[in-house]
Design brief:
This protein is mainly beta. The protein has one helix and nine strands. Bound molecules: copper (II) ion.
Length: 176
C-alpha cells in the first residue's frame, strides 16, 4: 500500500515537472476499479488510511476530493473496504452537498446500503467489509468517512453518477 501511494505521488510529480499548472486528472498508478459492462457492475477497492497522505485521513491515498469515480447511472457499485490504519475509519456515500459536516447518520446515505458497518464508530485496523449498492440517480456524491470530524479533515473523495458515461472511470488529481 505504501509503495503504491509513493509511486502515485511520484507519477503526479513527474507528469507536472516544470509545468507549473494545476495537474490534469490522471489514472492512478494501480488499478483501483474493475468493471463488468454486461453486469453493469463496478468494483472499487477503497483502503482507508492508506499511507500518510493528509495525515492518514485518506481513501487509497487520496483526500479532499482528489479521487473521482464516475459511474453510469443504474450500475451497481461494490466497494471492497479495508482499514489500513490504527485510527478507526468508515465509508459512506452521501450527496456531495452534505459532505462538509462533522458527523453523518444513516438518513444522509445517498443509496440504500452505501455504508460500511457502524460508520460513526468506524472499523479497526485490518477490518474489511464489502458494501454494494445501486446508483439509481445521476448526480454528484461524495465518499466520506463518517467517523466524526474525519470528513471535515479532508477524508472524502468524489463519486459522480453520470447519465452520459458509457463505462466507469476513476481519475485522481493531486496538487503538487
Ligand atoms: Cu476516518
Amino acid at each position: 500500500m505504501r509503495t503504491r501511494t509513493v509511486l502515485a505521488v511520484a507519477a503526479v510529480a513527474m507528469a507536472c515537472a516544470g509545468c507549473g499548472a494545476t495537474p490534469q486528472p490522471s489514472k492512478p498508478q494501480a488499478p483501483l476499479i474493475t468493471w463488468n459492462a454486461a453486469h453493469r457492475l463496478v468494483e472499487w477497492t477503497v483502503v482507508a488510511g492508506d499511507g500518510g497522505e493528509n495525515g492518514g485521513m485518506n481513501f487509497d491515498g487520496y483526500a479532499n476530493g482528489e479521487m473521482t469515480l464516475v459511474v453510469p447511472v443504474g450500475w451497481r457499485v461494490e466497494i471492497h473496504f479495508q482499514n489500513a490504519s490504527f485510527t478507526p475509519h468508515s465509508a459512506m456515500v452521501v450527496p456531495e452537498s452534505v459532505r462538509n459536516r462533522s458527523s453523518f447518520d444513516a438518513s444522509l446515505m445517498a443509496f440504500p446500503g452505501a455504508e460500511t458497518p457502524n460508520p460513526s464508530e468506524g472499523s479497526s485496523k485490518g477490518a474489511a467489509a464489502n458494501v454494494a449498492f445501486t446508483v439509481s440517480r445521476a448526480g454528484d456524491y461524495a465518499l466520506v468517512c463518517a467517523v466524526p470530524g474525519h470528513a471535515l479533515a479532508g477524508m472524502w473523495d468524489k463519486l459522480v453518477v453520470s447519465s452520459q458515461a458509457k463505462q466507469p472511470s476513476l481519475l485522481v488529481n493531486r496538487s503538487p
